[in-house]
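INTERNAL AUDIT FORM
Audit reference: QA-55
Scope: verify that the stored structure record matches its stored sequence.
Auditor: D.O.
Record contents follow.
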Amino acid sequence: MFMKEFWIRAEGLRRAINLTRKELGGKIEVSPKTIDNWVARDIVPSGDKCFALANALGATVEYLFTGDEIALPDDPYIVADRPRIYNQNGIVPQDDEEPTFLIPVAPQRISAGNGEDFLTESKYIGHVRILERMAKGVDKTSLIAAAVKGDSMTGVQIFEGDLVIFARGHISENGIYVISLFGEVKVKRLEFRAAEQKIYIHSENSRYSTESVTMENENLIILGKVVGWVHCHPY
C-alpha cells in the first residue's frame, strides 16, 4: 500500500502539470518504459532518482513518500495550524523542533562513475533538509549530498540508495570520506598513518579487502569528509 500511494501522488502531480511519462523520463534520465514498470509494479526508485522525480514534479521527496509537504525557505505555509517562520538560513525552529537547513543533491552516484568532478550548483538535481548539528565543525556551504551505489559500507548501515552528506574539501582525522581513487568516486573509511606515510582505505564489508596508497599518490583525491547520511533504502 505504501509504494502504491507513492505513485498515486507522483502520477497525480504529473497529470496536474500536463507532463507525459516520456517528458518526465527525459527530466530524470530514465526511459518511459522504466517509469511504466515502476508504476505498474509499485517500485520506489533509488535515492537519487527519488530526488530527481520530486524536483521534476515540483514537490519534495517527503511529499511523495508521506503526503506531507515540508516547508522550504521560498514556500511558507502552515503546518498543524502553526505558521513557519524563516530567516536567511531557512526554518526557524519552534519549541520542540531542531534547527535544519537545505543542502544540494549531486547527480552522481558515489562508488560508481568515471571520476568526474561534482557538478556546479546549476546542475544539482534537488535539495535535502538536514539537521544543523550535522554540520558541527564544518562550513555549511561546503556540504553536498550524493546517492550511494553498492554494498561496501553496509557494516556502518550505509546502503545502496542512501544519501551521504559530506563537506567538500574538509580533511581532518580518520573517518568516512568521499574519495576519487583511480578515477572512481567512492565512499570509504580512511585511516591516516603518518609514520608510514600511507593512507589505508577500508570498506565496511568483509567481502572487500583493504587498500593502501602513499600520501603522495596522485591517484587518490579526497573529495570531503562524510558528516552523516540519510537512509533511503526501500524495504
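Auditor finding: record pair retrieved intact. Residues 70-92 have pLDDT under 50 and may be disordered.
Action required: none
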